[in-house]
Design goal:
GO molecular function, one term: alcohol dehydrogenase (NAD+) activity
Radius of gyration: 20 Å
Number of strands: 9
Enzyme class: oxidoreductase
Number of helices: 15
Mean pLDDT: 95
Strand content: 5-15%
EC number: 1.1.1.1
Protein name: Iron-containing alcohol dehydrogenase
Helix content: 40-55%
Largest sheet: 6 strands, parallel
Family: Belongs to the iron-containing alcohol dehydrogenase family.
Distance between the termini: 36 Å
Strand order of the largest sheet: 1-9-6-4-2-3
Order of helices and strands: EHEHHEHEHEEEEEHHHHHHHHHH
């Protein structure tokens, strides 16, 4: 049968078997986890492992008869040697279920360990897309920040010293079995963490909504990121509405529960959208920027977003107007770009790559490394007649100089 064309509407979502959202949702964690197994491998970064919420969850699991191994000896960027060390402990323990509890690094490590317990290493053989040969150990994800959306996505990222950039394992088998999103767990997160993770969630929403439309390709192995589609787009818009309307308050008043609830829901919806729709150039350019400046992921994607959408105006003008309307702004592309720029500044994100220490001399390296992130670059809606290298070069140069990108189309 003939393939669908790019113009034909199609929809695709890949999600956990169950998603639980709401204040107090973590109260049901114990029966949900023990229904999957009694040997529980719990991943939490060193900070989260010391919190009352995590300690209470582990104590409740043990009181219910579960045997729990806590893994918390890892850095936020998940260096390969630490992933391998954690995997060795996990294999010795032979868990029946893996619990990820914390921010993106905790959830990503949980995904990687669920993979490496079921399938032999090295983890490098799974880099890229659709390399996981089958199901992994059942995974329960409990985010404590509103940002990464990792609790519902098929991607885990780590740092391999043999590579210039972070690398990812992207496969639908990594999608958690259950996501438990309790906004109360995000209360008290530091302002900088809230800002960086929160703006990254907005980037997920905007980039999944503006990602290149593709054909469905039903008869071929599907990409992990298939571009904007009819099922992801409404989630992107609602996520943008929620995050734009609550992020300033969540940063300025970390105890504001309505803002925290809106951020947690917006981050969740953005994760649901980009888990299949995908992200594009803000994320692709951030990979080398983050590596070269040692700055947080969300800081980089948030800084870059206004430059990226301004450069892509020739092909996403209509989408930007829709995003502006969803965010409560005048329904124009100009309002969307200005609104994103204002939000980034208001929550304390630097506004230029020069603020991070990059100069024009760094641009060739940034561009070369960006173009290596093919799965994201290929998802970008590049204007007709424009070379991708030219586009990325102009975005990066504008972001160094703090100016609007020049039109290339």
């Amino acid at each position: 049968m003939p393939e669908s064309t790019a113009a034909s509407p199609f929809g695709l979502l890949r999600l956990p078997g169950e998603i639980r959202f709401g204040a107090g949702a973590v109260a049901g964690l114990v029966p949900a986890v023990t229904a999957l197994g009694r040997r529980v491998l719990a991943c939490a970064d060193p900070f989260i492992a010391g919190t009352d919420a995590f300690r209470q969850a582990i104590a409740a699991l043990e009181a219910a008869g579960a045997e729990v191994l806590v893994v918390s000896e890892f850095a936020s960027e998940l260096p390969l040697h630490e992933v391998e060390a954690c995997a060795a402990r996990a294999n010795d323990f032979a868990p029946e279920v893996v619990l990820g509890f914390g921010g993106g690094s905790s959830l990503d490590l949980a995904k990687l360990l669920a993979l490496l317990v079921r399938h032999p290493g090295p983890v490098s053989q799974y880099y890229g897309e659709n390399q996981v040969p089958g199901p992994v150990v059942p995974l329960v994800a409990v985010p404590t920040t509103a940002g990464t959306g990792s609790e519902v996505t098929p991607v885990a990222v780590l740092a391999d010293p043999g590579r210039a950039l972070k690398v990812g394992v992207s496969d639908h088998h990594l999608i958690p079995h259950l996501a438990v999103v309790d906004p109360e767990l995000t209360v008290g997160a530091p302002a900088a963490v809230t800002a960086h993770s929160g703006i990254d969630a907005l980037v997920h929403a905007v980039e999944s909504f503006t990602a290149r439309r593709r054909s469905a390709g039903w008869t071929a192995p599907a990409r992990v990121f298939v571009g904007r589609n009819e099922l992801s787009a409404p989630l992107s818009l609602e996520a943008a509405r929620l995050i734009h309307g609550s992020l300033r308050t969540a940063v300025s008043d970390g105890a504001d529960l309505p803002a925290r609830e809106a951020m947690a829901r917006g981050s969740l919806l953005a994760g649901m959208a980009f888990g299949t729709g995908g992200t594009h150039l803000s994320h692709a350019i951030q990979y080398p920027v983050g590596a070269m400046t040692k700055t947080p992921h969300g800081l980089g994607t948030g800084l870059l977003l206004p430059y990226v959408v301004a450069a892509l105006r020739p092909v996403i003008d209509h989408e930007l107007a829709e995003l502006a309307a969803a965010m409560g702004l005048e329904p124009t592309a100009d309002a969307a770009v200005d609104g994103l720029r204002s939000l980034v500044a208001d929550i304390g994100i630097p506004t230029t790559l020069a603020d991070l220490g990059l100069t024009a001399a760094d641009l060739p390296r940034v561009v070369d490394l960006t173009l290596e992130v093919g799965r994201l670059v290929d998802n970008a809606p590049v204007p007709d007649g424009v070379e991708v290298r030219e586009l990325v070069t102009e975005i990066a140069a504008a972001a160094v100089e703090g100016r609007t990108p020049r039109p290339l189309a």
